[in-house]
């Protein structure tokens, strides 16, 4: 086993990614399209970040004051909605920062769509939604 690990060509590997539907507790709202969650997988509690699939919100560190203000509004809205709540998320891939890309649900309501409908987010085509989601 040890030699196999040493010999294996890691350039052929993809990063590990959770795949499926999970129940989680939102422990932190990072910004309008990213949250940190606690969930159980393989009988272990896991703390990980979720990047909402298909949407993008303004950046909190923007030099544009209007964009920065809108970023904080989106974050506050999401925080009031999700902080310490139990959610369900569906994921099957990661973004370039290692965050799980996911569709997020609160009481069967799609929060990705809610952020779009409430005008806190815009569509983000870089994250293609899997047909499984």
UniProtKB/TrEMBL annotation:
SUPFAM superfamilies: Staphylococcal nuclease (SSF50199). Residues 20-133 form the TNase-like domain. This is TNase-like domain-containing protein. Gene3D superfamilies: 2.40.50.90.
């Amino acid at each position: 086993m040890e030699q196999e690990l040493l010999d294996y060509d890691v350039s052929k590997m993809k990063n590990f990614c959770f795949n499926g539907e999970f129940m989680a507790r939102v422990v932190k709202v990072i910004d309008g399209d990213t949250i940190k969650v606690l969930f159980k997988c393989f009988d272990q509690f896991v703390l990980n970040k979720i990047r909402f699939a298909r949407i993008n919100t303004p950046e909190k560190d923007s030099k544009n004051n209007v964009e920065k203000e809108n970023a904080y509004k989106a974050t506050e809205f999401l925080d009031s909605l999700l902080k310490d709540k139990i959610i369900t998320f569906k994921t099957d891939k990661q973004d370039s920062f290692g965050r799980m890309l996911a569709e997020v649900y609160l009481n069967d309501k799609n929060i990705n769509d809610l952020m779009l409908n409430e005008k806190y987010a815009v569509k983000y085509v870089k994250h293609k939604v899997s047909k499984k989601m």
